[in-house]
Amino acid sequence: MPLKPLSHSAWFGPGLLVTAIVGGFALSNIANAQGRPQMRAHTATSAQALSLQAARSNAGRNVVQIATSGGTRTITSNGIPDHAVGAYPNRGNPNRIRAQSYNFSVTTSPRQGSARETRGSLIGVAVNGVPFDPGAAEFWQGNPRSGWQYEALGGAVTLGLDANYAHVQPTGAYHYHGLPVGLMQDLGWSSNAASPLIGWAADGFPIYALTAEVGGQVTKMTSSYRLRSGSRPGGDDPSGSYDGAFVQDFVYVSGAGSLDACNGAVVQTAQFPQGTYAYFLTDTFPVIPRCIVGQADASFSKRRG
Fold first, then answer.
1. Residue 227: CB atoms within 10 Å
2. Any residues with CB less than 8 A from the CB of 275 and at least 6 apart, and which?
3. By C-alpha distance, which of 205, 220, 60 is closest to 130?
4. Of 68, 100, 244, 287, which is least surrounded by CB within 10 A?
5. How far apart are CA 135 and CA 152, in angstroms?
6. DSSP designation for 6
């Protein structure tokens, strides 16, 4: 089945109110999606359909090398994607894609612990050397301490995303906020097969997309996050229904899907036939994990633009 961009309807289903909540995991990533320009003061409160830039441009030559030595896996790249991208700059993003000098390292023997925030670290890197960085540095009234962070894929704030759910930092770094559609197509991803390896998380666990083999059957891996029921508090906080405009509109509901709070599960894969904990990209929030279960390597610390 051809891979298509997410429809807006994939994001916004019925809300489900529960008391279990993973809170604040996005607020630590204050300087991420757009680098470190002055905060823009937003007052939008409604999610909108995304208007994605068609991926028709060539960003340049992709350079990536993945090597394993001893107990360390090293991913060296220039951050230039190996698939078509949107036109940059554009009305929603004024930055041009420029080559980077990435040198990521992860352990080949990660240990699964409790969920933890990345706190200024990238979540991971794709096999083409492009980082996964889902959070947006966009906050209610431009205040990172407001407790309300705009969801990059919620559409309330225009970020100039392309059809790979990616855009560009002021540093020129192209990075993914959602499903890396072009990469998945290049890797031959299919809904009828277990996902190929998509990338490596900052703690060393692998990243796959959407599907896995479970009990001998190809299975769609599903998020356990749901929209909250009701309306936001208003007053000094945003008002309106919980519709996905903000990260805080979502709540983790244990067992609601097949994945845990970090969008992970223990599975058997082609790379790990004996089984491994793995993260999955999903077609509903959070799409890209917002937390990890191991220790992030320091090489994934975000650069200041």
1. 22
2. 266, 267, 268
3. 60
4. 68
5. 6
6. P
Question: Considering only CA atoms, which of 33, 126, 32, 134 is closest in space to residue 79?
Answer: 126
Answer for the pair 208, 199: CB distance below 8 angstroms, yes or no: no
How many whole angstroms separate alpha carbon 47 and alpha carbon 150? 9
- Structure tokens of 9? 């309807």
Say how far apart CA 14 and CA 224 lie, in whole Å: 13
pTM over the 0.85 mark: yes
Helix (H, G, I), strand (E, B) or coil at 5: coil
The pLDDT assigned to 29 comes to 45
Give the type of residue at 196.
P
Q: If residue 125 lies in a helix (H) or strand (E), which one and from where to where?
A: strand 124-126
Determine the number of helices (DSSP H) and then strands (DSSP E) in the chain: 1, 15
Two tokens, residue 258: 């097949």
Q: pLDDT tens-digit profile of 138-181?
A: 999 999 999 999 999 999 999 999 999 999 999 999 999 999 99
Could you read off the pLDDT of 81-136 as tens digits, one per residue? Answer: 999 999 999 999 999 999 999 999 999 999 999 999 987 899 999 999 999 999 99
